[in-house]
Write a structure and sequence with these properties.
With 361 residues, this protein is of the alpha/beta class. It has two domains: 122 residues, Enolase-like, domain 1; 223 residues, TIM Barrel (Alpha-Beta Barrel). The strands form two sheets. Strands 4, 5, 6, 7, 8, 9, 10, 11 and 12 form a nine-stranded mixed sheet that branches. Strands 3-2-1-13 form a four-stranded antiparallel sheet. Helix 1 packs across helix 3, helix 2 packs antiparallel against helix 3 and helix 5 packs parallel to helix 6. The longest helix has 19 residues. The chain is globular and about 60 Å long.
Length: 361
Amino acid sequence: MKISEVKVSIVEVESPTGSTRNPVWQTILVQILTDKGITGDFFGWGDNPSGHVMADTVAKTFRPMLLGRDPFDRESIWQMMVGRSIGGIPMVAVGAVDLALWDIAGKVAGVPVYKLLGGYRDKIRAYASTSPQQSAQDCYDYTIGLKEIGYTAIKLHVLGGPKEHIEACRAARDAVGDSVDLMLDSHCRYDRREALIVGRELEKLNFYWYEEPLPNTDIEGYRELCQLLDIPIAATETMYFADPAHFTPYMVSHIADIIRPDAKYGITMTKKIADMCDAFGLKFELHGFGFAACQFANLNILGSCRSSDFFEKMFDNIPYDACAKDTVQIDNEGFIHMPEKPGLGIELDFDEIERRTVFTL
């Protein structure tokens, strides 16, 4: 089997009414065609202007390298693309190609990708990842609503500083009691003193984890925080990386308890990080931002590794499920089930994608 063509389209999707985020989200569709009639599809990551950058990279840099290659040579192709990233190639473009190649592999085998990776589970617990809340009362009301929907875990994002965050976390715990696991994502906003103060309060409130209290560049700060606090510390989501080795210091020196990569950089890379976490006895919890194909990519990785507890289900005014016939939803116990369809397991709405396509390379 050989790659016969690589198609790239830029697609624009409007945000829901009332969204405070971008009015239009720009993403790309990457299709890798083979001489055997199997096509790998990835639709899902991008934002103005990164959609154009990603599309240009795939079309002009990667397409000439891919034509005529065996689509099963994913490791060789990944190494080739990552080698180019040293010169400034965006890793999200590497991820788009890699995910399309994994989609081909699953379709040829007739199984979802997580089975190819080595199936470990058929469902995983979800946590609702909230949009940023303005006040403690907003947090109280929002978490009650999420519990009523069926979520058994909720991650908070709160505006303001440490004082407002502590008040919101107390309100959330009052709202849901002890029956729901809670986390806080601080978005790297604190200095070391503030991070310690908030962390100690979260321990009193029995929070499940404490995410990115410090900038990811503050290696010593994270090391100190892990020593002083019992609550698990999550890091690396906002860290730029182009290779799994960038995570090694966090693992070797126990700079974080939970490592957070993202499948938008590709399954090949992200699975390597998952296996590294398993070897070092660390938790591996994927960042869940992205359109539907990114979510299904995350789900396939989580279905193949034991070191993860959750799937991050985003709640925000962003069209996460745009142009997709399959979406990720919780069951009545708060779990998400692994895909059953071959490949990434998602059926895209190509008619809708075509209507929203603004440029093809």
